[in-house]
Each structure stands twice: as C-alpha cells, then as structure tokens.
Amino acid sequence: MTGLKKISRALISVSNKQGIIEFAQALTRHHIEIISTGGTAKLLRAYEVIGRDVSDLTGFPEMFDGRVKTLHPKVHGGILYLRDHAEHRRQAHNHNIHPIDLVVINLYPFRETIAKPNVSLEEAIENIDIGGPAMVRSAAKNHRDVTVIVEPEDYPRIIELLNANDGALPEDVRYELAVKAYRHTAAYDRDISRYLAQQLPGAAASNEPPDELTLELKKRSSLRYGENPHQKAALYQLVGSHEHGVANAEQLQGKELSYNNLLDADAAWNLALELYHAQWQELQAGGTASANALPHTCAIIKHTNPCGVGVGAKALEAFTKAKATDPVSAFGGIIACTKTVDEAAAEAMSELFAEVIIAPDFTADARTILAAKKNLRVLRMGEIALSRDPYFELRRISGGMLVQESDHELLDEEKFQIVTERKPTEAEMRGLRFAWAICKHVKSNAIVYAKDDQLVGVGAGQMSRVDSVKIGAQKAQLSLTGSVLASDAFFPFRDGIDEAAKHGITAIIQPGGSVRDQEGIQAANEHGIAMIFTGMRHFKH
Asked: One of 72, 98, 141, 244 is an active-site residue; which one?
C-alpha cells in the first residue's frame, strides 16, 4: 500500500460509544497513545484502557459545562501542522505541540435530540457540537498526515489495516475517510439549520417551500440498471425521514428489486395507504374507529397505474376482487395489501405471476407458500400509522427541481355539491368515495369505474378525457352496469358524460369548474345520473 503513515497518537471523543472499547484496545496493542475527553475518558478507564485526558494535554480544564474542551492550539496544532514542512515542525517543537495522527469523533446527537417529542429549543441548542466538527474538519483538511473516523462502522476495517501494516494506515484510506468526514459535518450543519429555521416565527404553520432546500440522501443499494438496461441507477434513503415507505421496507425474499419494481411498488403502496386512510376516516365519522374494524384492501399496479383494486372481509376476498378487474394486466404486476397476508391469500397470489407483493406483514404459513416462488420479491412494511404527515415532493427538470407540497388530502365533503336533480344513494356515495381515492392515483387524464368495493375499469394517461372514458369501458372485464365513475379533473364537454351513460353508469364524482359545467349537468340529468362536484382536483402527471 502506498503513502503509509504510522499512527503514534490518537484523540478520541465520541457521543456514540458503540465499538469504541474494542477499537481503543486495538490502538493500545499497537502502542498508540490515546487522548480522550470527558465521558469517553471515563469509559475507557473503566475498561482499563490507559490514556490521557485532553485537559492534561492543553493545561486547561473542560469549561462552561463542556462547551470548551478541545478548542486549543495543542489540539488543533497537533492535528493541522504539516509533518513534512520544516517551518511547521519548528513551530510545533517551540510550542511543545505533539502530532495527533488519528482523530476519532462522532458528534453530539443533535438529530436524535430533536426527534424526541416536545424537545425544547434550549435542549436542542445544547446538543449542537462545536469542538467536534472543528476537529473533524481539521483532521480532514490535513488528511495527508492525519486519519479521521466519524462512523463506528469503520472501526473493524481500520483495525484490520493497522494489523496488516504494523500500526500504519495508507493514503487512499485517509483520503476516503476525509471525504466521508466532510459529508458528515455538512449533514450535521444541515440538520441544525433546518431545525432552527423551523423555529422561526410562523414557520411551523407555513406549508410554503423553504427559500433553500437541503437534503441528505444515503445510498442503500445499487440497482442492476435504471428504467432501461443502458441506464445506471441506485436506491437512496432520505436520512432522518421516518416516513413509512418502500425505501425502508424489509425484503423478505426474492430477486433484487429493480428501478421499475421500486417505482411500481411505491405506486401500489401509496394507493393502498390512500384507501386505508380513507376507510379509517369513514370509520371515525361513523363512530366505529378501530384498526381491527378496517377491511382488507388489495391493489394491483402495472406501470404505476392500478389495474385492479378490491376490498373484502379477508385478504383472499380483496385479492380475488382486485385480480378480477383485469386478470390479463395483473400478470407481472405489483400486489399491495393493507393488512396481513394469510395462507389462503398467499396461495391465490402464488398462482399469479407477480413481480412484488407488499403488505404490513405475512403469516408464517403465507411466507412458506410464497417462498416456493424463489424470484418473487416480498416486502414487509410493518404496521401502518393511522396518521400521515405532509411532506414535499421533488421532481427533477432540466436545470432545476420542482418542489410541491404532497397531495395528502383526498376529499373535503364540506365542499361537495350535488349538482344534479337526482341525489346519489348511500351505496353510490360509498362507491364514489372509493372510486375517487383510486382515481387520485391514476395518471391524468384519469377515469375510474367502480362498483361494490371493486375497481371495474380504468382509463389512464390519455390526452383527451372522453378517450379515457372510452378506454376505461373497453378495458372493463366486469359488467359496467350500475357502476359509478370518478374523473380526476372536470369534463370540458358533455361528451364524456354521454359516453359514460352508454355503459350504464349511475353516478359521477368530478371536481367541476369547467366553463361548460352546465352542459355536463344537463347531460347527467338527461341520463338520470347523479353527479357530485368535489371542488378539488387530483391531477397526476
């Protein structure tokens, strides 16, 4: 290995004590002197790891409740001076500054602190590290001579290298760790600035995108390729996010997830969640809010559009309904369920070629059945939260990024207008709410036909809304008679309503807002169709 540098002295100051005892003991075996601070020094002494307190090195005690302990020339001088620079060596000798060759630091747990409920601003501020980032940046700057470690996960690798090189570390490793160190402090500062900005007057009540948006993404895995084989791709997780999402799912079995698998899985899970939360709100409105009372819902997605959705008392019933929507399109699709998949449902699902099955959990018998499909990806999502937090959605465009608040609303029934002579029946209202929730997750222009807690037909992504109405009817494998229809945006002309009437549609839910709304209302009245305006649009581009 090139550029080997012998380690003679290490400074250790860590909040996260994971693995530090074993690491310090390994340093001692290589006769590396250890200098440490406060709690770290106390812990090392408890395990009989001999070292010096940083106060012995600087000649000053830790001060101001630990706010000042390493901000001293004997610390930063020992880290920063260039070993091959004659004048630096002379100054270090004259001021009795000894080289520090290894800096092992992790910072005050600011992110963990602000994640606690009801944390005060004062507590958050006291967990802003000052000396730690300064030492990390100093060591990273002087990586030609100094190694910096900020993550416990790197300890085993460094121990191996020390053992292999008689207490020395190579130049390429020092460089790599320096890059990681700067990334670490940048993320730390982002967390602090984001949190403090949220404390500004009025910030908590504002849903406006911020003036500056910083994100930290951590690579979870490389993917075989992107949308097409010639495109490289990877999956990243949003650091600090507690969102219940596909990027954090536990893969129980199957082949590696592809880029397209993940896109479709996310679409399927988001639709399943939409229906889950809509059902929960309906139970709350009826005074029977209990997670156990929620039905099973199953959604099947193909190319990010739903090709089957069903609701039932059991997982098998929900899946059977979903598959019946369009069995041909369901082939090779993504299946998402809102409750635990049991043996009977797993048996039925295993008969359909599917790319991915997603659910909060799977029974042991279900897992055994699905395990026979070696290539089938099975994702366990864990328990679904009964509330959803809004977030910002980002989409790359050339030269920039579009940012919008997540579309976390579904309906505001106070804005409902029954605009036709005939009012929807109770059964039609239930079907309209169901169709509306699905329509929100269909590419615009979107038309959804539904009946009896089952998706019947979908018209997706057409340039003309009436074409979506026609295609949804053409795709329907089940009878459309008595179905209800949802449209993600208004009908610009009456032709879409006239077309729907040909197929026996009894009720329509749409946002309204067209200059020709009255023509559409007249068409619905002529056909005896009940129609609701929601006053809310759900375009999905």
From this structure: 141
Q: Which residue among 30, 303, 314, 373 is the active-site one?
A: 303
pLDDT in tens, 346-361: 999 999 999 999 999 9
Instruction: Specify whether the CB–CB gap between 180 and 201 falls below 8 A.
Output: no
Domain 244-380 has CATH 3.40.50.10540: no
> What's the alpha-carbon Rg for the chain, to the nearest Å?
30
Flag whether pLDDT at 1 surpasses 70.
Answer: no
Q: What residues have CB less than 8 Å from 8, skipping those under 6 apart?
A: 32, 33, 99, 101
Burial of residue 180 (number of CB atoms within 10 Å: 0-12, 13-18, 19+)? middle
Domain 5-198: top CATH class: alpha beta
Q: What is the pLDDT of residues 359-409, one digit of tens each?
A: 999 999 999 999 999 999 999 999 888 777 777 888 889 999 898 888 888
Q: What is the dihedral of CA 214, 220, 224, 225, to 10 degrees?
A: -10
Catalytic (active site) residue 42:
no
Task: For residue 451, report the phi and psi dihedrals to the nearest 5 degrees.
Answer: -160, 135
Write phi, then psi, for 372 (nearest 5 degrees): -70, -20
47 and 21 in contact (C-beta within 8 Å)? yes
Q: Where are the domains of the chain?
A: 5-198, 244-380, 413-533
**pTM for this predicted structure:** 0.80
Catalytic residue list contains 277:
no
DSSP assignment of 500-517 equals HHHTT--EEEE----TTH
The Cα–Cα gap between 28 and 13 comes to 16
Q: What is the CATH number of domain 413-533?
A: 3.40.140.20
